[in-house]
Design goal:
The chain has 335 residues and is α/β, with parallel strands linked by helices. It folds into three domains: 1-50; 54-254, Rossmann fold, CATH 3.40.50.300; 259-335, no CATH class. It has helices at residues 8-12, 16-26, 31-45, 66-80, 136-146, 159-167, 205-222, 242-254, 259-292, 296-303, 305-334, and strands at residues 54-60, 86-91, 96-98, 101-103, 108-110, 118-122, 149-155, 170-175, 196-199, 231-233. The strands form two sheets. It has a seven-stranded parallel beta sheet, sandwiched between helices. A three-stranded antiparallel beta sheet has the order 3-4-5, covered by helices on one side. A hairpin with a 4-residue loop joins strand 4 and strand 5 (108-110). The two termini are 44 Å apart. The structure holds guanosine-5'-diphosphate (GDP) and magnesium ion. Residues 66-67, 92, 94-95, 104, 153 line the site of magnesium ion. Magnesium ion is lined by residues 66-67, 92, 94-95, 104, 153.
Length: 335
């Protein structure tokens, strides 16, 4: 394996090739990649250059306008804030990049060419896991150090909202205006998750207005006693409401905690995703092995974090397989 640490200075300067190479390391399922990831993250962490990015999740049904809105918002964000940079990770099969633009179904959002403060990456979605790809969180751990804001676009199909809640600092649910009798906001616990709602396509004025009032009323029923959940009304096409959304984002940036608690909240997410990884990759026997090794937090602390723990558990599996093999061999010899 090449020495990925050599790519770090270029990645901090946001050179696209370096970021892309590093992302491939963070998507690499091989055990030896885990060790390299640990090295890269340790050295980014101690470089004093980490940007400790804010994670924002944008979710909603296909066609609601996520890609278009995120593209608009991203462009406006970086032109308003000359010292900030932003990455978009699209885990949406309908989003892909071509020649510097995101192609939605029928839409084409321009990402300002030549501006390295905006980075776009798409990932194949993992339907089985409810929209979020297996490696999404892994890549986010890298982007955390490189960008001030990281937007994750996911298709909202239920399970992915729960995943995105574990991942993002704020979850935005995008809705599009609906006709009166189509409004069924009470669905399956999904309404409880978002921190903010966005009624996009509010250029469809009447329907948007009805949807807004129905949503407000449902939220009072579903989330009683909760201070008013923000509902934004936007149009990614006319630009309506985008300034409000940007202000909200700027306030979030201004109110961010100190580095220590930001890193601590990343650590909590790592624990969640480490356990999830063990369960997905190794099943119930993996979880049993994890508890034999002292549980996830303990193992992560001892083995040097997420990547060290991945490597440790893979080695433990390998070890017990070898032991099993030699037991079988000696049984065979005896018989
Ligand atoms: N009228 C209107 N159309 C929009 C708006 N935002 C997106 N669209 C259109 O909705 C369609 C789906 O948009 P897209 O961004 O691909 O949605 P996604 O699947 O949620 O990412 C495209 O044809 C867009 O041009 C909006 O605010 N108003
Ligand atoms: Mg999309």
């Amino acid at each position: 394996m090449p020495d990925f640490n050599e790519l770090i200075p270029a990645a901090f300067q946001r050179q696209k090739f370096a970021i892309a190479r590093l992302i491939s390391l963070f998507e690499d399922p091989r055990p030896e990649a885990a060790l390299q990831r640990k090295k890269v993250l340790d050295s980014m962490q101690s470089s004093g250059q980490s940007r400790r990015g804010l994670f924002l999740g944008f979710t909603g049904t296909p066609g609601a306008g996520k890609s278009t809105l995120v593209g608009e918002l991203a462009n406006r964000f970086i032109s308003d804030a000359p010292d900030k940079c932003l990455a978009v990770l699209a885990v949406d099969p309908s989003s892909h990049v071509s020649g510097g633009s995101i192609l939605g179904d029928r839409t084409r959002v321009r990402f300002s060419h030549g501006d390295d403060r905006l980075y776009f990456r798409s990932q194949a979605s993992d339907q089985e896991l409810g929209g979020i790809s297996r490696t999404t969180f892994s890549v986010l751990r890298l982007l955390y150090h490189l960008f001030d804001v990281i937007i994750v676009e996911t298709v909202g199909i239920g399970q992915s909202e729960i995943e995105i809640q574990q991942t993002a600092d704020r979850v935005f649910l995008l809705l599009q205006p609906m006709a009166g009798d189509q409004i069924q906001f009470m669905k399956a616990g999904i309404m409880e998750i978002p921190d903010c709602f966005i009624i996009n396509k509010s250029d469809e004025k009447e329907a948007a207005e009805r949807t807004f009032h129905a949503l407000r009323a449902s939220l009072q029923l579903i989330r009683p006693g909760e201070a008013r959940v923000p509902i934004f009304r936007t149009s990614a096409i006319t630009g309506m409401g985008l300034a409000d959304l940007l202000d909200y984002l700027k306030n979030l940036m201004d109110g961010r905690d100190d580095p220590v608690s930001l890193d601590a909240s990343l650590y909590r997410r790592e624990v969640y995703y480490f356990e999830k990884w063990v369960k997905d990759e190794l099943g119930r026997s993996g979880l049993r092995m994890l508890s034999d090794l002292g549980g996830s937090r303990d193992l992560m602390d001892r083995a040097g974090g997420f990547d060290g723990a991945q490597k440790a558990i893979l080695e433990a599996v390998q070890h017990s397989l070898t032991r099993l093999e030699s037991q079988v061999d000696s049984l065979l010899e005896k018989s």
